[in-house]
Amino acid sequence: MIGIEGQPVLTAAEMRAAEDAVIATGVSVEMLMERAGTAIAGAVRRLAGANEVLILCGPGNNGGDGYVAARVLAEMGIAVRVAALSEPKTDAAKSARAGWLGPVETLAAAKPAPILVDALFGTGLTRPLDASTTPTLNRSPADAGAQSKPLGTPLELSWAPASAGERSVVECLHSLANAAQLSIAIDLPSGLATDSGRALSTPPVFDLTLALGAIKPAHLLQPAARYCGQIHLLDIGVPTVSQAEVLKTPSLPTPGPDSHKYTRGMVAIIAGTMSGASDLAALAAMRAGAGYVTLLGDSEGPPHALVRMPFSDYALANERIGALVIGPGLGRDDAAKARLEAALTSGHPLIIDGDALRLLDPDRIKALDVPVILTPHSGEFDVLFGKSNADKITRAREAATRANAIVVFKGADTVIAAPDGRVRIAPGASDWLSTAGTGDVLAGAIGAMLAARLDPLDAACAGVWLHGDAARRLGAAFIADDLAEALRSARASL
Ligand SMILES: NC(=O)C1=CN([C@@H]2O[C@H](COP(=O)(O)OP(=O)(O)OC[C@H]3O[C@@H](n4cnc5c(N)ncnc54)[C@H](O)[C@@H]3O)[C@@H](O)[C@H]2O)[C@H](O)CC1
Ligand SMILES: [K+]
Fold first, then answer.
1. Best residue among 125, 202, 236, 240 to mutate for probing ligand 1, ranked by most atoms within 8 Å of CB
2. For the segment 9-44, what is each residue's pLDDT rounded down to a tens digit?
3. What's the 423 CA to ligand 2 centre distance in angstroms?
4. Ligand 1 binding pocket includes 123 (Cβ within 6 Å)
5. pTM score, whole prediction
6. Domain 12-243 classified CATH 3.40.50.10260?
7. Ligand with minimal distance to 227 CA
8. Which ipTM value was assigned to this complex?
C-alpha cells in the first residue's frame, strides 16, 4: 500500500488510456485484473487478521477484481465469502468469476461478515446504484441450493426487475457495512462518480479505500471524499502521469548564516474596514516564516514584531515588498476600491482574497503583469468566474487560464490550479477549519511563501499545506488566532 502524497490524479478516461497503453504492450486485461486482485488480497489479509471476509462483486471489472481477490484470499487460507449483484458482464470479469470456486450468494441475501469488501462498482459507474438496471435479486430454483453445491459448480442466477418491498442495493451495502468491523472499498466506494466527485447514490462511509493504479478525483473531491475513509494506493503496474497531483509536503528554504529579515521575505498586508481580518493575515504571514511583515492601515493588539504603518502610496512603494496581500477585511466601499487600485498598480506580486475578489473581474486580473494568486471560496469563485456544473478541478483550471493567475479554489477539497494546466488537490485537513478568519490566515501564509520567492504555484501549495497541517495539529474547536499561531509548529515540522 502506497501513501497518496504527490501522486498523479487520473480521471476515469485517463486511467483507461493508461491501462490501454499497458495492454498495447501485450499485457491482457485479465493480467491487470490478476495484479489488482492479488494486491487487494494482500492488503485485505494484512487488515483482516483471522476474521471472515465478505466480498461484494458487481457486473464489471471492479467485480472482477473482487473475484480474483476472493480466490487469492481463499488460497491464503482466509475465510472468504462472495456475494454478487449480477452475473459478470465483461470477459475479464467472467474469467475471474470462473476462477472463484466457492459459492456465490445474492447481494440481497448475503449475511454480514466482520470484514466487508465492496467491489460492486469502480470507475465504470454511470448512474445511481438502484436506477434501471440494478434488479432486486430473485433466486431461481436452480440457484436456491447454491451454497450447498460442490465447489466449482457454475451458478446460474436469474434476475427480475426491482419490486416494491425488496431491499435496494444501497440498503444492502449500508447494512452490510454497518454490521462489519472494517469496511474496505475497492478503487472507489460504490455509488460515486469518478471524475466529478458527486454521489450518484449515497454509499456508507468506508474505513478504507484501496485505489487501483492511481488516485481519482473522487478520492479527493467532495462530497465523494467523505465516503472513502483512509485512502491507499495499490500498484498494478500501470505507469501514470497527470498534470493533476495530490498536494504534497513542501520543501521550504530554511534560514542560513547569511539570512536577514529581507532575504526571508517581506510581506505587506493592506488593511481595510475590519482590522481583525488583516491582523490575522499578518500574524499568519509571520508565523509561516516571513522575515518582515508590515500592515498598512488600522491594526490592533500584538504582536509587537508587526510593523504597522498608515496606508500610503509611499509605504506601498517599498521595493523590498515580496508579496502584497489584499482582501482580508478590506470592505467594498470607495476607500477599499482605492486601496485595491493602488495594490494592482504597485508592481508587487499579489495575493488577492476576500472582499478584493468581489471588486474585480477576470479580465482586469489577466491584464496584471505580476504573479497573482487568487484565493476564492465557492461563493467568491461563483461571483468572479460564474456558476457552472463542471467539476471543481475543471473549474479551477479554467479560471486560472482565464485570469492568468494561480487559483486556490478553497473548501474541504481545496484545488490549486495554474494557468498552464497544472493542478494540485489537497486532501481534506480538518472540518474544524469551518470557522471565521481561517481564510485570512491562509492568505497570510501564502503571502509568506510568495515573499520567500517560491514559484507562485509552489507558494500557493505550501501555504495550503501549512494551513492544513496547522489545523490537524489543533484538533477540535480552534479559532483562527490559534491556527495562525500553529503555523509555526507546521513550519517547524518540515
Ligand atoms: N480496465 C482495466 O484494465 C482494469 C480495471 N480494473 C477495475 O475495473 C474497474 C472499472 O471497470 P468497469 O468494468 O469499467 O466498471 P465497473 O466495474 O465500475 O462498472 C461495471 C459496469 O456496470 C455498468 N453500470 C454502470 N452503472 C451501473 C448501475 N448503476 N447499475 C448497473 N450497472 C451499471 C457500466 O456499464 C459498467 O460497464 C476499476 O474501477 C477497477 O476496479 C482493474 O483494476 C484491472 C484493470
Ligand atoms: K467499489
1. 125
2. 999 999 999 999 999 999 999 999 999 999 999 999
3. 26
4. yes
5. 0.92
6. yes
7. 2
8. 0.95
> Order of strands, edge to edge, in the sheet holding 266-270?
244-246, 423-425, 415-417, 406-409, 372-374, 350-352, 321-326, 266-270, 292-296, 307-309
Give the whole-angstrom CA distance, residue 210 versus residue 275: 46
Residues 198, 194: Cα–Cα separation, whole Å: 8
Q: Find out whether the beta carbon of 236 lies less than 6 Å from any atom of ligand 1.
A: yes
Report domain 261-492's class: alpha beta
Asked if residue 32 has its Cβ within 6 Å of ligand 1, the reply is yes
CA 3 / ligand 1 centre spacing (Å)? 24
SS (H, E, C) 125-192: CCCCCCCCCCCCEECCHHHCCHHHCCCCCCCCCEECCCCCCCCCHHHHHHHHHHHCCEEEEECCCCCE
Q: Which of 11, 123, 195 to mutate to test the pocket of ligand 1 (most atoms within 8 A of CB)?
A: 123
pLDDT digits (tens, 9 = 90+) for 188-209: 999 999 999 999 999 999 999 9
Domain ranges of the chain: 12-243, 261-492
Beta carbons of 330 and 340 less than 8 angstroms apart? yes
